[in-house]
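Format notes (please read before filing issues)

Several people have asked whether sequences and structure tokens are stored in separate files. They are not. Every record keeps both together, in the order shown below: the sequence lines, then the token lines. Line labels are part of the format and must not be stripped during preprocessing.
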Amino acid sequence: MDLKIQKIVLWPKNPANECREIVFKCKGVEVISGWSQKGKSALLQIVDYCLGSEKCAIPVGRVRDTVEWFGLVLALPGKRILVARRNPGNQPSSTDMVWTEGKTVRLPQLPERNIGRDSVIDRLNQLAVLPTHEPTDEETGSFDGPPSFRDMAAFNYQPQHIIANPYTLFFKADTSVHREKLVRSVFPYVLGAVNATTLSDQATLRRMEQDLRQKREQLEQLERAASMWKGRLQNFVAVMQQYDLLDPNIEVKAEWSVDVFLGLLRPIPEKWKAEPRFNELDGMARQARKQLLAVQTEESRLNREIEDAERKVRKLSRLQTASDGYRSAMAVQEERLRPSLWLVNKVEGTPYCPMCGGESKGGRQVALLAHIAKQVGQASLTARSTDVALSTEIKRLEDLIEARRKELTTVEARLRDWEQKNASLKDSRNRREAISNLVGQLTTVIETIDSADSSGKLRKEVEKRAKEAAELAKKVNFFAIRRRTDDALAGISKLIGHYAGILQVEHSAQQWGLDDRNLTLSSKGPSKTDFLWEIGSAANWMGYHVATLLALHEHFRNVRHNPVPKFLMIDQPSQAFFPEGIASAKKVASKKRFSDDLERLRRLFRALSDAVARTKQGLQIILLEHAEPETWHGIAHFSMPDGQWREDGALIPSAWK
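Then the structure lines:
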């Protein structure tokens, strides 16, 4: 993406102050040189904030106390873009932004919000030809999502806390989600190893594999449960034989499956409901037995009605839960599509777009979107009607259950009266209750097994999903992606070696490669692999950071439709040589030591100049430095766009009140 920074603009809170502009040439190494606390480092954070960072990291103090709006003028071939963002004040950030684009742009006296942060990121994604996706915060979004323009910041900034960090090579890579996303989707994409379609397929495959793992675990649990159910069903068979509810001559075999046991036991609950066993009534009068049987039959009928009603309530409740989920989903879709009706009213009868004022050619698509919105609204209305009907039916069944239970209480009281009249009837009642409880337990077990025993269906689903995942994995072709990635990394490794040679950092004779899985540098030796954090010295860490970023930007030029903007901001790399500052070091260090460190700094500047030359001035490097102009004197492609920030010079003019 041939995007560079032409201007950094600050609009003051005090209208009496003039707007502050820093104008860049968009080529070469452009140095903002000055003393500490002059606002140099704030420039990097200002650029990142204006390009859509989730939070404002611009330092508090004079900059945020005096500036109302921060802005950039971006340069693209044949186009200029003004993007500005409001000072967040006491908030973490502001979503108030300004976006204007054209062949030229005019700076307003004071910006007025015309767009939000998500829309700015969406537009930057379009300009970078990145896959479309839902806007998400880079720190909290899913690492399975497609690359966003915000992800490209990893390759554009090297602030002070990163430039010589032995453990973190890239900007924002110290957050877990962004780091994981860099590994999974951003690096393969910017290296040219995958395209947008392949990235989407990879994310789908990861979700499929996760779902497949869960379903396999469920299948294993069902199979373990089946073996536990088998032992319990075998016990039921033995007890039912004792109560003469099963043929006592049946011989149970150890190799029987759960289905065989169920085949024997399944008829028993229905048989018991239809004609409960009650053989111990000898000695009772025929009329008493007739009355008792009538009461018993009534009790059985009431129990059946209650069980049937409860079963219906359970089924309707599950259906209502599913209906609630569907209704909620429809409501979400209806809410998302509601603005389309407004858009139809705005577009209808006019050839102009209500958003940008340009000529609109999307009337048919807008009408189609509105039609879909109406269909979703109708579906949502139907879902609500269904929910009312289900609630009404559940209430009716619950009332019926309550009424039958009251009747059952009366019948049970009548039975207890008969039990008190005859001891043999009482014994028989106890026996019948024991059998009834046992049959109830058996019924519950059978229903549980029937609802949980989806192992056959689940096994087929697992086989189907495994086949689909295998087919998608074949389409994705991880081996080809890895080969293309390794080829790109091999080329980048050579470029890192080239720049490391100019810098003359330690161990530069070793072949250092970019480890895209761990986001660091590594060098494979004969006995072990060395990593960046193991080589020691801030000067070495800084040198390899710079070599890596320069190598990547040189590689990006050869990747078609690469979305990384062609600028690199580096904040004070000289701190690795002069942590106390060049002026202080000149006073306290020996002449030879100071001369050696100064030469190493000049090698750094020569490496930056070489990168500009090798990219045919296609790379804009903005260098924020304590170093004075004589340190890069005679090195090509260096310039100072805003003079020196010493004495009176600074990001915030001394005249601002």
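For reference, the curators noted about this record: The CA atoms of residues 512 and 523 lie 5 Å apart. The longest strand covers residues 67-76.
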